[in-house]
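Limitations
The structure tokens in this dataset are predictions for the assembled complex, not deposited experimental models. Users should treat interface geometry with appropriate caution, especially where small molecules or nucleic acid strands are included. An illustrative entry is reproduced here so readers can see what is and is not provided.
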Amino acid sequence: MSSIRQHFEENGQGHVFAHFESLSESDQKKLEEQASGIDLTELASLVRNLVQSPGSGNEAIADNLEPANVIPLPESKGGNPTDWKEARSKGESALRNGRVAAFCVAGGQGTRLGYDGPKGTFGVTPVLKKSLFQVFAEKILASTRVFGKPIPWYIMTSVINHDETVQFFERHEYFGLPEDRVHFFSQGLMPAVDADGKILLSSPSEIALSPDGHGGSLRALVRSGAVRQMEADGIDTISYFQVDNPLVRCIDPAFIGFHLLNGSELSSKMVPKAYAEEKVGVFCQQDGTSLVVEYSDLPERLASETDENGNLRFNAGSIAIHIFSRSFVRRLGSGKDEAARLPFHLAHKKVPHLDENGTLVEPNSPNAYKFEMFVFDALPFAANPVIIETAREDDFSPVKNAEGVDSPQTSREDQLRQYARWAKSAGIEIETDDTGLPSFAFEVSPLFGDTPGRFASSWDELAHKPELTEGLVLV
Ligand code: UTP
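Predicted assembly:
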């Protein structure tokens, strides 16, 4: 018996090899490879601590919780335009010196959207249906043109979408970005287990594995060699965003500047929560340490608590936009610092698996536990964390669900409202409803940007051709 099989046997997971003798040689090899990627000691402790003795309730988390300190927008109460100007200029200079990389996490399964393909390939813009990846690529390209330095783009995929993602970029010639500046790497995987902690098989030769969460990005950045590559290229600042948000400013000089001026290891953007029950994590402080408390862990009495002006006290909603310092990613991602490890969270999900007779079962209710890390759990470990306010309408409108909130429809409308705001600020008369939604669809290329002068003249040129009004595109 091979040593890996022996190891699984000794750790009560020998059933993973139940069908081993009937497999072809290549399938045997594949299964052994999958198995050797699993840390059984880590898994046993996760099963003990998460599956078999669930958490002690959210009141424990609420102990001493205070709202986080936030840098307000210049136009918000307490905002300081001079600080923002200084931050912007610091960020611009870092960009001109080539210190910044863009980093998109795109390894998720995207189950809620129900789209067949990597989420980044989903067509999201109002007229041309440009894919999310194209939108980000063009934003990054636009920044490289402004700052005169190529901005490398790291994209984290997972085994479920890696090849398709790379092929998509190849097919589209990297959307104009230099090919050697777009780096793909796959994130780590974790096995799904049943209520007894037994690893599930998805076929006789395959373990039911799934991506280890966006928090897995820190160790994947280290393991893949991305951090080493950044170091060689003189990159020390990593601009993190998620694949589902077409409004995100992938490269935001003021945000980068605040991060650098404060010597921060991890900076974050917040938006004021829209209402008390909104399902976003909230930036808080506990004993002087910043942290994000998930909406499900924030007791209702705190979520709805208001200050003397009637505003929510815990109103700093997390929108998954961060800046990491490279050295911080190395420290956390290498796992060498025992005191700074991202915890795993438990998800109870439906996972097709082989039963003890080797028959494939398609469950219709959650039957399995998956383990995921969350990127915002890095916050308590970061020195000098910075949280800045951003306007939701300029940075956040994710595509999560097929319909309803955070869907292609809401995101499309938010993109249209943004274009209409830009047009209006360039002095263009445009009819909108009370919510700022224009009465016809048009689209502004990220390569065109929001440069008011250019905007106005191109608009004039195009808008006077009535046949072009619906679906007008500024490129
Ligand atoms: P979500 O939490 O929205 O999960 O991910 P998801 O897998 O994309 O979608 P659902 O829940 O199955 O519908 C937020 C971001 O984190 C990335 C996603 O690709 C998305 O950009 N992510 C999530 C990863 O990169 N890896 C993961 O393991 C999980």
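Some entries come with short summary sentences. For this one: The first helix runs from residue 3 to 10.
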